[in-house]
Please model this.
Amino acid sequence: MEMTEATTIQKGLDVYAIRRQFPALEREVKGKPLVYFDNAATSQKPQMVIDAMTKYYTGFNANIHRGIHTLAEEATAAFESTRDDVREYIGAGSREEIIFTRGTTEGINLVAYSWGRQNLKEGDEVIISTMEHHSNIVPWQVICEEKNARLKIIPVTDEGELILEEYEKLLGPKTKIVSVVHASNSLGTINPVKKIIDAAHKIGAVVLIDGAQSTVHLDINVREMDCDFFAFSSHKLYGPTGTGILYGKKHILEAMPVFQGGGEMIKEVTFNKTTYNDLPYKFEAGTPNIADVVAFKSALDFVKQTGKEKIRQHEEELLHYATETLEQIPGLRIIGRARKKVSVVSFVMDNIHPQDIGILLDNEGIAVRTGHHCTQPLMDRLGIPGTARASFAVYNTKEEIHKLAVGIEKVKKMLS
Amino acid sequence: MKENKSIQEIENEIVEEFALFDSWDDKYEYIIDLGKKLPPLEDQHKIDINKVKGCQSTVWLVSEFRDGKVYYKAESDAIIVKGLISMLIRVLSGHSADEIIDTKLDFINRIGMTTHLAQTRSWFAGDGAADEKFCAGL
Model:
């Protein structure tokens, strides 16, 4: 199959122009051009994000808030400006609802510890699903153990979709919170979060949506979705690592006890009584990850400039092409056949361990992720030790998918 | 005779053998071949206590202490790891526990495989410093 540059320039998205903005894509691995298909783990960063970090450190590095000098004012303005852009990006009602964290994991932990400690009691139930990332399992296990609350699990079909009828059966007067992933990192399944949220709200439970995988691919509007919490990371969205966002409805966040104590989150400290700052600072103890938050704004700008709809169309085309191409390979089985998916293709191969696939594809310059993808219960449910996973971003091309297919055929030959 | 060779000498032999390969493909084909030839571990040894934790693939390791020397048997469900196991057995098996513990065990690094297999770096459910050393090579 011959692929030409022209075949992947479509609908106004010039993927080659986009690729030129990502310096890491120019490197070689094992003497071959890098094919980066590990975007569900983390995306590469465009030059404008890297430049924003350099600009911060070379131009206005200062600790934020409370500073009266120029650099502190500039740093504070840049930091807070990212908050405004994030609010707009996810359609939140106010900037007070946007809390900076280290990432999705910390956001979920914040809710489990703060909201969970205050609201869960013995016998209460927390609902998660079989396809959760460990980050959306372990924090709930910890708090459930502490409170003698129970964890209930929404089952999945063989195709990798949540069984909503079973979910509805799990909902009951003891259900206090439902915490589910928007898009599965292992399978790509897009879950019907609106239905899940509405059903939970009917019985008075709150809902957290793990948006780690969805935020880069889908249009997010937390108000339309009506979730109570929404957690995601910058680094899967072309932004820096070590920065994430927890959105929470204002009245819920206001009622929650503090998570970590320290600077910035206080109003007044005395040894008798400390009073806490207002939202969002109440949940942002200590000096935050200023440089990365500042640069995250540039990642959002990159998405805006490129156009979310164009990105989505391109990724959908890649997903479709990859699914069609890979399923033609004898002995290869795609894991995750949900009707709605983000651009993730997980697969296993007859008599070949995913680790061998990963190592030998790396030898071809192709980066995929192998293993259980931090979703061990899901792998157990599907009866497999793990998968090889190719996940696509805006800068990937059909030529690269073709290389993947050729690489897989070579792996088969080497291991036969 | 193996008994006459130190761990370091066997490591050097492997490094020399790998120096003959022109390409990464050749190196992998050799390791895959070693993996295919590794004798299977008997089923009675494939139990939890013999599992090396933290590996992407499942690795079972059993060691036996005989006449002052440690002898290894191991297996994995991934072929490249099996090839690596085969080399580790060749290097370490049949030496005293002290020798095994004291070795730097750097041939894997010297043949250029570290970056590929760092993800499998692991620990062992069993006990014994010599067994831990074996696992450190994975």
Q: What stands out?
A: Chain A has two domains: 5-33+307-415, 50-304.
